[in-house]
Design brief:
Blueprint (H helix, E strand, L loop, with lengths): L1 H20 L2 E8 L13 E3 L7 E12 L5 H19 L4 E15 L2 E15 L1
Parallel strand pairs: 2-4
Antiparallel strand pairs: 1-3, 3-5, 4-5
């Protein structure tokens, strides 16, 4: 009986791990003329409107996130936001001003549809 319970538990954990492994995110950027050294992703702030401090725009960053099976739109957004912040940090930004954020259908099959979050913003650096 204990072996059967352990086997069931192992199958459940394996299934959940495989589903999480299917989550996907990616990001890209367009740089301005000047290149900057990378920053720490933990220091990248997200803004939904222009901040009051002085800054320069160092590029445009775009990302997408798609969670398979669990999490839905909330997980899509988390994945897209993580990718956006990582991409911004890679090009030396310490902030991103969000200009667009859309949830859209990514694929449709006989089993249902999946969605993805796409986010676009201005990568900025404090002056």
């Amino acid at each position: 009986m204990i072996l059967k319970n352990i086997t069931v538990l192992f199958v459940c954990i394996s299934t959940l791990t495989a589903c999480a492994a299917l989550d996907t995110s990616e990001a890209t950027h367009i740089l301005s003329v000047q290149q900057h050294p990378p920053t720490d992703v933990a220091s990248v702030s997200i803004y939904i409107e222009k901040p009051s401090f002085n800054y320069i725009v160092i590029g445009i960053v775009e990302s997408r996130g798609m969670a398979f099976f669990f999490g839905g739109e909330k997980r899509d957004q988390e994945l897209a936001m993580q990718a956006l912040k990582q991409e911004a940090a890679n090009i030396g930004a310490d902030g991103v001003i969000i200009s667009e954020s859309n949830q859209q259908i990514a694929s449709v099959s006989k089993d249902g549809s999946s969605t993805e979050r796409r986010i676009k913003g201005l990568a900025i650096r404090r002056q």
